[in-house]
C-alpha cells in the first residue's frame, strides 16, 4: 500500500482517507472478523473457521458498506492513529473496531455492550453487524 510505504519513510500524511473497517469480536471459540473495504468487497471469518469472500458488490451490499463507512468517518475524525505495537486478539466478550486510514491504523476496543452503546463507536458497529448479517444470509 502506497500510504504505508510513505509512513514507513517518515512522511506525514494529512489526508484521512478511510480504506477499510475491520471488526473483531471475541467469542467462545475464537474470533468473528469482518473486514469491509471501500470498494464494496468484504471478508467474513467466523469463529468456526468458515469464511465468506464477498467480491460481487450489489446495490444492497453497497448501501450497507456506505452506511458503515459514513458512520466510521465520525469515529475516525475523533481519534488518531495508533503508534504502538499491535495488541493481542480480543478475548471473549471484547470487541475491536479498526479503521485502516491513509495516515495509519486507528481503533477502539472494549466490552461488546459498552462499545455498541458508545455514541461514537456504536453506529459504526451496528452498521458492521448489518453488513455481516447480510453477507451470512447471502451465503446461506
Descriptive overview:
This protein is an alpha+beta fold. The protein has one domain. The protein has 4 helices and 6 strands; from the N terminus they run H-E-E-E-E-H-E-E-H-H. The N terminus is likely disordered.
Attribute tags:
140 residues; alpha+beta; 4 helices; 6 strands; 36% helix; 30% strand
| Spatial strand sequence of the major β-sheet | 4-3-2-1-5-6
Beta-strand content: 25-35%
Sheet having the most strands: 6 strands, antiparallel
- The helix content is 25-40%
Number of helices, where a helix is a run of at least 4 consecutive DSSP H or I residues: 4
Q: Structural class, please? A: alpha+beta
SSE series? HEEEEHEEHH
Mean pLDDT: 89
The CA-CA distance between the termini, in Å, is: 33 Å
Q: Rounded to an integer, what's the Rg over CA atoms?
A: 15 Å
Low-confidence runs (pLDDT<50, min 5 residues)? Answer: 3-8
Number of E-state strands: 6
The structural domain count equals: 1
Shape: globular
Amino acid at each position: 500500500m502506497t500510504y504505508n510505504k510513505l509512513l514507513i519513510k517518515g512522511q506525514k500524511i494529512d489526508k484521512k482517507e478511510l480504506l477499510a473497517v475491520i471488526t473483531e469480536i471475541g467469542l467462545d471459540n475464537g474470533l468473528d472478523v469482518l473486514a469491509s473495504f471501500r470498494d464494496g468487497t468484504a471478508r467474513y471469518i467466523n469463529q468456526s473457521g468458515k469464511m465468506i469472500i464477498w467480491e460481487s458488490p450489489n446495490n444492497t451490499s453497497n448501501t450497507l458498506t456506505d452506511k458503515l463507512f459514513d458512520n466510521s468517518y465520525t469515529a475516525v475524525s475523533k481519534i488518531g492513529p495508533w503508534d504502538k505495537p499491535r495488541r493481542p486478539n480480543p478475548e471473549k466478550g471484547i470487541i475491536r473496531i479498526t479503521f485502516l486510514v491513509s495516515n495509519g491504523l486507528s481503533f477502539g476496543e472494549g466490552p461488546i455492550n459498552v462499545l455498541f452503546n458508545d455514541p461514537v463507536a456504536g453506529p459504526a458497529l451496528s452498521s458492521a453487524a448489518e453488513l455481516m448479517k447480510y453477507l451470512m444470509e447471502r451465503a446461506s
